[in-house]
Amino acid sequence: MKIKKTVAALVLAAVAGTGAWVAWGTGRAPAPESTFVLLDGSQRSSADLRGKVTLVNFWATSCTTCVAEMPALVATYQKYQSQGFDTLAVAMNYDPPQYVLNFAQSRQLPFKVALDNTGAVAKAWGDVRLTPTTYLVNKQGEIVKSYVGAPDFAELHRLIEKLLAQT
């Protein structure tokens, strides 16, 4: 039991450390090279994120925090999409595709939703295991902020506005 707690603490510290490194502006990491398979079967790559400020949200239909934050993600997308902002919701590999499709359709999600059936995208983005995990990517394709859990949306909006204003 003690070993499990120690391992859990180390994992949490690593995740927090990586998030803090990005969040505190001590560095910017390029968005990992990955291919997103969207619900309609089309594909989008990390290179496609360049030129827009993009929120990449790893989530699951079984995650209560993910479901609770989804209306705020929709509102954020609707508020900034006309200014060059995009959102990409990536469903975890353990989430049944039919559940994801049903959720996206019934909630009329206005942004792109991807299925990470193999777990390769989550692995590429820092071996994401906790949901929600969200990354904010600038126009240059660099991760400038990461969140584990629901973000502070007022702070997120201020950062989005700052990034949108940059050339």
TrEMBL record:
The keyword Signal applies. Gene3D superfamilies: Glutaredoxin (3.40.30.10). The keyword Plastid does not apply. GO terms for molecular function: oxidoreductase activity. InterPro entries: Redoxin (IPR013740), Thioredoxin-like_sf (IPR036249), Thioredoxin_domain (IPR013766), Thioredoxin_ResA/DsbE_sf (IPR050553). Residues 1-23 form the signal peptide. Keywords: Signal. It comes from the Bacteria. Residues 25-165 form the Thioredoxin domain. This is Peroxiredoxin.
